Amino acid sequence: MTKISVIIPVYNAQKTINQCLRSIFNQTFKDFEVIVVNDGSTDSSWSILESWQDKIKIFNQENKGAPAARNFGFEKSSGEYIIFCDADIIMKPTMLEKMSWVLDKDKDLAYVYSSFKFGWKTFKLWPFDLAKLKQMPYIPTTSLIRRNYFSGFDQSLKKFQDWDLWLTISEKGGKGIWLNEILFLAVSGGTMSNWFPKIFFYLPLQPKKIKKEIEKFNSAKEIIKNKHGI
């Protein structure tokens, strides 16, 4: 069995996918497979992926969204561990080595996550805390998961599919662990979810676009809380 399956959903990622793939193949850890699901891209993503076809497994599907692409990629994977890597992620060279070492060392852990950077902003994070996880989503999608704990992304959700996943794993007794290092960068302007500074939530006069995003954020948060009874 392959040690790690790296699963990448791609939708119109022509600006970032080359950097992402280069960072994966520059890993110090080498026992991995890369599965890319092209989710109905309309830009030049496909032609870029073709240039990597000797190194990666490429699958096409009509546009269904990242959760569906990730689930499809998982079905095609064989790794003992899996990691979902958005097309705008740049991994540090030792990321897979350090994460896999943590799961190898403790067989009771379901997944390992790290701090990261999103553009100029550093997300330092903190040790795994189930009570805090029930309050807010703080564990990134790009975390290394033990295969038997992955339950699939809920494709009916429009937001917070990753939060839902970590809560579902915890309900099955799975625990995560924080690796206190910045192990990847998400390129600003890529496909990763938009990040809004906390101050935007408290401005008395919010820009219309930001106000709309905050309303969607709060609505999606309630859906997750109701689903998991928190």
Automatic annotation (TrEMBL):
InterPro entries: Glyco_trans_2-like, Glycosyltransf_2, Nucleotide-diphossugar_trans
All copies of domain Glycosyltransferase 2-like, residue ranges: 5-135
Pfam families: Glycos_transf_2
PANTHER family: GLYCOSYLTRANSFERASE, GLYCOSYLTRANSFERASE 2-LIKE DOMAIN-CONTAINING PROTEIN
Organism of derivation: Candidatus Buchananbacteria bacterium RIFCSPLOWO2_01_FULL_39_33
Protein name as catalogued: Glycosyltransferase 2-like domain-containing protein
